[in-house]
Amino acid sequence: MRIFKRLLIVIVLSIIYVYVCNISMLPSDIILMQGETLNLSTIFGLDVKDEETMQASSSLNNSIVEETGQLNLSLNLFNLFSVKDVTVNVIPRTTVIPIGKAIGMKLYTEGVLVVGMSEIEGQKPYENSGIETGDKIIEIDNTQIDNTDELIECVNNSNGKELEIKYISDNEEKTTSIEPVKTSDNEYKLGLWVRDAAAGVGTLTFYEPSTGEFGALGHGINDVDTYELIDIASGELVTTEIIDIVKGEDGSPGEIRGTIDNGISLGNIYKNTSFGIYGNIDNVAKLNLTKYQEYEVANRNEITTGKAEILCELENGKTQSYEIEIQRLFLENNENNKSMLIKVTDEELLEKTGGIIQGMSGAPIIQNGKFIGAVTHVLVNDAKTGYAVFGDLMIKQMRTT
Fold it and tell me: Model-level pTM?
């Protein structure tokens, strides 16, 4: 009898655990594009209701949503009580101009980013301060720090006096103190390696005429030292000059080498996300949009495996279309930018690049007369094959505040 009771308790607790996990894994906020399918992966006993009318909306789940605006839904357990509220924002379909042009990006952080540490005259002034690689220093002795020059000036002006330092760690603002160490060159240092900016070359994915906004890369820019997504305060999109193409091969990714030293500003960058770089185009004339075509952004359920084309620039001023094959679709994936498995099949592109190379990230993909996504990654062991992100995910990221 005791064994039966214990078994019953285990079964009941297991069922409760399954329900708790399912409820907690469902997002509280969802963004859909008009015409996309709402898919709340609920289990038996979880009913969807409209919060305004409290009428059952189960028919809405797993159906195509055409009406734009906000839906306030409630998940109810066995129709008895609410266990979670879900807000669904349905954004209207839009059109974009796929670009495929090589561009440069300059990103500036809030404060200065700590990228490393080193001893000064055999001492570790930062020890026990709590500051770690990846943290951002934003203030020293009540003086705002916006770049490395300001930090160096503040530290040198201290004459060795202990400094109060305000920094951000894991999105939490903290305060500590460090006593600078005097070097043999009569300078004062904290023993921290810092950076206030990053730059790179990639591909401009699209321009949205209705808003003047752009999307690029299809993935975010990570710091080369911390490997974390750079939290930017501002940024600039600039023209770039392609100086070389390094052909890729299996096990050794190639790259587009470009320079932004004499780059002309195209616009501002306001967002660095895992699904791309976003901002506003100010210098539209420089893009020469008359030679590009406008396309509707496809919902993922309109994308099929098979032939598609990408646009990319491998020679200065010459954007060209190349054939690829979409091999697999990951329609349920909203967590990362690996939405599609793609393969380069165009012989001309294979001859020039060997497949997908660094700097090609952001190359727009067109299929059946619609913009469907952008190249994001290459498989290191197969230079012809890589991943791409859905276009609807890029638009959603651009709309997210």
Answer: 0.84
